[in-house]
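Cross-check.
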Amino acid sequence: MDIFIKNIVDILKVEVPLSGEEIEGFIEIPPDLEKGDYAFPCFAIAKQLRNAPAKISAELAQKLPTGDIITGIKAIGPYLNFYVSRKMFFKTILNDVFTESDSYGCSDLGKGKTAVIDYSSPNIAKHLAVHHLRSAVIGNAIHNIHKTLGYRCVGINHLGDWGTQFGQLIVAFKRWGPDTKDQGSIQETGLDINKLNKLYVQFHKEAKENPALEDEARDWFKKLENGNEEARETWQYFKEISLSEFERVYEKLGITFDSYAGESFYNDMLDDTVDRIKEAGLSEISEEALIVNLEEYDMPPCILRKKDDASLYATRDICAAEYRKREYDFDKLIYVVGSEQKLHFNQFFKVLELMGYEWVSSCEHVDFGLVKFKGGKMSTREGKVILLEDLLEESCKIAMEIIEGKNAELENKEEVANAIGIGAIIFSELSSKRVKDVLFDWDEILNFDGETGPYVQYTHARLCSVLRKCGETATNDIGHDLLKEDDELLLVKKLEFFQLTLIRAAKSCEPSIVSKYLLDLCSTFNRFYQHHRILIDDAELKKARVLLVDSVRQVIKNGLGILGLKAPERM
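Predicted model, tokenized:
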């Protein structure tokens, strides 16, 4: 918390029935400078104080003290507005950005705490497709935001690597795949993710004509569960092929994980978990299945085992949550999974609660909407998917065409095109609230002038260009009182709010708060740049503005990095 917001919080805490953290969460920047540098909405305390917000604001304005930092307090309707020392404001914020550099925005808010983030989670033996994109980039941004705030972060890719579909795939491989007898071993068959995907599609096509294939697949999965050597070796190879493919695509997105512990990882722990649920008196038999009845909580039953004794997603997720608490002792366990799984998470969180685990209150389902394309729904079974790698390559290709038209002499064109193309896709996923569906439109996401990733990256490149033309290295040894323009003050205000933006994004697990902040910062800078020159004769003012420009550049770079985008210096 910076000195100005801390001072406001300390002043308000004496008179306001809220904690310091709550007060900080309500502090805003007023829409224009006449209304102060900060504002506190008295709506937030109207209910506790049983008074009209405007009256509360007026009374507080009379009571609260001012000083060297907060030089004025004024009531404007329901808002309490604070005015700070401008010279101190410029000096404090610009010095912080300059000295902290790449670390600006970091805090120790999460020091000593662990955040476990479960994201991406594709099924093995299939390509990464467009529908895997949102969980991956949202989860990566949430991971980076928490890490910036001092949390120990553990990123988990909970792979879908178990279930009857692997019995189906083994059948498809044995019937239509390469002959292992000729090759010597499964590893020498030349199998890859494309062939695996074709086998999966072929199985479902053939099973429509020959339903007996489904029984054969169930038998093979039973063999897999029982440890059959051939089934295990085949399944393990499918997994190795998949992981190699996944990591190659994740690398293009700049996404990494600390663990790939998937569904199969918990096989040996499931019986103990089910036993604990039974011992707690929570389970019962219904239609030959083992369930936890959640009727009194207005939910369907949580099925633990089917009548054939096979476990389900809920059982594995309960088991995984127990393991993660033992292994990581998390303070937050965040699941970045689509909105269609809300019921599933409500059910298994409720079972954890009924098991007596108080830490379930630290578990959160961070849901999100769909990516929509023209042409309707995608289906892996039918082979109708848009592959994630194809999407990334197409975006980079279009970005290259734009660069060729705008700046054909640019050095490292391919590297910049990749940064823009991939960044455009990531930013498009993070630029609106995650619960909203995203309509994918090439013209919009690669627009250098719209509310897009390329626009933010281009603003960063423009800032770098300005600094190169100035021919000066930024220094914090400036006359801060030379920065007197309202546009300069607005810029520094935006810089100051960067850390608070990250804190709010972490609390709500909402990366769009950061993307909106960057768009606002870029817009504020471009307005300043239209009205004020940097290359001026006044050497001292020029030096002050160089520091201001460099500070904006630094914060944009930091923000882009947190969201998972690169910040090109030339475009």
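The first helix runs from residue 3 to 13. Confidence is low (pLDDT under 50) at residues 377-383. Passed to J.P. for a second look.
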